[in-house]
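Convert to structure. Protein one:
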Amino acid sequence: IAAVIILLIALLVVAIGVKVSSDRRARNLGLDGTKSSEVIASKLVDNAENSSVRIYVERGVIADEKHYSIEMTISANTRTIRVLRGYENIEEKSEGLSNNLEAYRAFLKALEKNDFTEIREDTSGFEFRAACPTERSYRFSLMEGSSETFDRWFTFCDGKRFGEYGGKVNATFSLFKNQFPNYGMITRGVSF
């Protein structure tokens, strides 16, 4: 009996050691959902061939018929802008442009300079649309292959910042907007 108890204790110790080691590995690789901004930032340019970045901007909470949002997605091969109507994101207009790896790498480096992957703590408890319902809201995403590895939001009202996105919002928005020579024409009639 003593041998069985010692064997069970030894197995338990090994199992706990494996779990702790696995948790540390996941945290270091960012697989546990708590990726540090340093880990994500280093991956922006390093994984340019297999990634895309996206910004989604929407108007405050208003009638479905007047609710518009803009989504811009950039990858090594394409740049896409979509104007979406209503809360169900019905596509009204879109434009797809080609891209190349060097242009995309330059874009990612510019995003890094503007803290695209910076994460800030938001203890407000609000969600994306609830924090500042009459103001513009932003979502920033990084996709690696088919996996979304970074998704943070931001809004500002009453002198307060809300959301987990810690980057430079206006500069980042301008960088995305400048990827589309026809931005003004595509978004004509969309009021924020």
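Protein two, convert as well:
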Amino acid sequence: GHATAYRLMERALEHEPENAAYLSFAADALCGSICYGWPSITSDDEARCVGLAKAALERAEGDPLVMAASGGILIEVARDYDAGMEANHAAIEAGPDHDWRTVITGLMSMHCGDLDVAMKDLGAVVALGPKSQHYYCAANGTAHAEIVLGNYEAANQWALRSLSACGAFTPALWMLIAANAHLGSFEWYGRH
């Protein structure tokens, strides 16, 4: 899982310590562990994660995926919304589109209040359908945005699509629970 990915990235960084992608991937592995509340991988996962993300941004050289992932980490882990959104906007402007970059910028735009950008970016990946390996995450992000917009039935449907694409994606269950709580319905609970 995340601990193995982090250790592999650390080994790669021993050989290429300035590699922005390796720095970003290592930070992302820690971020995933932090966000899911899993056991610590390092002595201070949050500090190491943020340090790696900042180092990746310093070396990004216009790489939209590195900028988006590292900016997302600044938002989710460091709670540095300004720097995170600055990286997010730079990633959008840098193009070209990449499914994962587009999902990240969509999610971070939603978390920081720009639902128009969020729905545009998430919608671009959702339009690719399950042939995109990141469809499940875009569908879940769309469910989240629909909850924010008060469209609970639509949110419920998007969360179910996310689960059908990746049944082990816990955030889709969170969206399903939230949508159904707003709808006052928990009949689905026994089926999932």
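The two ends are 24 Å apart (CA to CA). The first helix runs from residue 2 to 15.
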